[in-house]
Amino acid sequence: MNKRDSLLIFAPAVFLGAFLLFQVQPLIGKYILPWFGGSPEVWTTCMLFFQVFLLGGYAYAHFIARYLKPRTQAIVHVVFIVAALAMLPIIPSAGWKPQGADLPTLRILLLLSACIGLPYFVLSATGPLMQNWFHRTNPAASPYRLYSLSNAGSLLALISYPFIIEPAFSRATQANIWSWSLGAFAVFAGVCAMRLWKSKSIDVPSKSRQTNLSEQPPKLGTRLLWLALPAGASVELLAVTNKICQDVAVIPFLWILPLCIYLLSFIICFHHERWYVRPVFLGLFILSIITVALVRAWNVDLSVIQQIIMYSAVLFACCMVCHGELYRLRPAPHRLTGYYLMIATGGAIGGVFVAVIAPLVFNTYLELHLGLLACCLFVLLADEKSVLRRGSRRWVWTGLIVAVGVAAIFAEGHRGDANKIAVSNTRNFFGVLTVWENDRNDPTKHRFVLQHGTTFHGLQFVAGTKRHKPTAYYGPTGGGGLALRFFQRQENRHIGVVGLGVGTIAAYGKKGDRIRFYEINPDVEHVARTRFSYLNDCQADVDVIMGDARLSMEAEPAQNFDLLILDAFSSDAVPVHLLTVEAFEIFLRHLKSDGVIAMHVSTVHLDLQSVIWKMARHLNLKTAWIQNDENEAEGIFASDWIILTRDGSFINQKVIQAAATAPRSDFDRIDLWTDEHINLFQILKR
Fold first, then answer.
1. pLDDT of residue 602
2. What is the three-class DSSP state of 153?
3. What's the pTM value of the predicted model, to 2 decimals?
4. What is the pLDDT of residue 659?
5. What number is the average pLDDT over the span 342-351?
6. For the chain, is the Cβ count within 10 Å smaller at the N or the C terminus?
């Protein structure tokens, strides 16, 4: 069989396998995101799983290609494919929802292993294994274009998901379509196995086959670069994804965009060596690093689109130089499974560093900048003419780059100036919390401020009567403050609060009241109780329920809240799983018939008001939109609130009507948000 005929056999299996491999990533991520608080780390942990199982698939492909005869390879792989089909469907059971203080990272990894582990493992092995089989049946043909085709299938899967698949189909339908497509893949892979079975060269071991005996095996330094370069690119992929999701929202599109850029660099670099022009992409890489450094140093305020463009450009330049150098160091085709195994290992190392090691070692987000430094070092080492590859100077340059990284860590942990200093930094699965001490030498202004990611989440003055006043977004003239001050019943109130912050709402608590906070991040409660005093000083009975608010309230009997305050933003990211019809139905079940929901919707990048107006009309709720201006002397932040209630008596009060603003007239253009469908593009502020 000639090369063209063989391509017609192997190309569909490679392409469809790669397509399904990457299509299942946003699908399964969307299923489990609401179960774990909507944190960016949910996707980071999913990516860790994907990278580790990709490594497992590559290791399996390398092992059977190296040590098993072709017919045995065909039998073994077909058995694995049949076993993967037996694992369908891939829809996760509700029994995997977290319970209490479960470790999120471990539970996500176990969930993914049980639901999609074997199918993902089989699909992961497809690329390198089919390329090896193609090379066996066509010794004179290069298999690297199949690698480019594989990445093209992956890229198409990612691009099609937010624009075609997600808008058109429910999650259950998506999962069923994926399952049927896996069956089609099994047919294509079976045809490839039959082609290998019938090949005339089936008795020639792959280790010696087509080997040029004069060829020297790759040096240790080259093999280590096969590991280091993809590890650096993987760190940047996850770090950039985290950064974008923290500042906007944790949604499939913002997971997919960085991953598309990452795959695009593989496609470009591995299609042909002429596409990677080292001086051009090194220049772009250096320019992108300088841009990020200047934006951070000068504290430039960028729009969401500008941020996405800047970080996407950084990621693209970084991946191009890493993967371009990786392709330059490629081995002869008969070594490709080992080469791909090292690439996958490097990717998994990067994933482990960002998802597991960084949250344990660092108390701030340092991996994006440290990853850039590491990539600089690896690219310099990959250049034979670099000073790092010649003589004793390489240790000087290596030491210099490491010193810069250490200095960056130290500087990040000791931020501030004469009037503002970071007194604590903590980091866990849910992000970075920083407590700032401001104006220590001025008793009238001395205060502590809690920052989560890029957003301030609470403030408390230290001295005098101001210590007990509600501040930040919860001032007396804001939506939340008005709801608490003018609710019809002012005694023995039962108040629910989604999002603890520093506990500011406890300042409104009176003797006889009960306040029930829902908080997913255990570090937030620790900071609220040790660095701030609202909870400790509160006269009401206060409970803090740990875990995702939606899951906690779903499992609880009706609480009969008089008021429910919703403020669960994480950095600037929007908790989309708390803004769907299904979520509001849960909230309303816990609310008295004349109860009030006060929802804080201040956000830099998104028009959430329109989402909530649409929701209110669907659920037949009365609404009032209340905007509050900043008052720096009193520690009050500007804020936007929406009041919702089934009973119009609260909203009809003169004080509420005087504070309310008329709703916008164009909210009809917004889709109704459900668990099955969320359209973030419609509400981006321009």
1. 83
2. helix
3. 0.79
4. 92
5. 92
6. C
